[in-house]
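SEQUENCE, STRUCTURE TOKENS:
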Amino acid sequence: MAKYYNVVLGAILAGLAVGAAAQSPLEKQLAGALGARNDKLDPDKTKRKPEWKLAHYSKTPRKGCAITYYAGEQAVSYIGPSDNINEAFVSVTSAAIPNIAKPNIIKVTLAADGEPDRIVPATHLSIAGLDQGLILFLLPNIESALETMQDVAGVRVVLDKKPVFNLRWEGGHAARDKMRACLAGAAI
């Protein structure tokens, strides 16, 4: 898996190396996943009500589906394959994750409720228009990730020995069902 991860992320990072004005397929995928929330309702991110949002950012059925849980300045997304990228991801973003000039493959400590802490490979990157960094985890496939998704869960990420993400969600099963419907081609 580690070799596959490095090959896939190497290809994705090569796609991120396009000119500053252009947006890579991965950046479009991540921006689509994070763009589901109408941020104009309350510009003060700290006062926003935690919620799940479904995004379908492709014209192709079964592609471009994502669910994102927003809580204050943090968000976690389950991102399915898109028109241009067949891989699926989980991403986390928070004000504590720094923006960086160039994407990097890193190791972080990932912890989830009821599981031991694990050191896992991830990609640390920045997305144009997002005022905080993002950590991206490659999934074997979206269905297995959704199958193990809990209704109530906590996720924590440590980067360079500093906690950068700590989020607890509720309503995961309802969000998962919406994601599965999108992946099955249902109109949303």
About this structure: The longest helix spans residues 2-16.
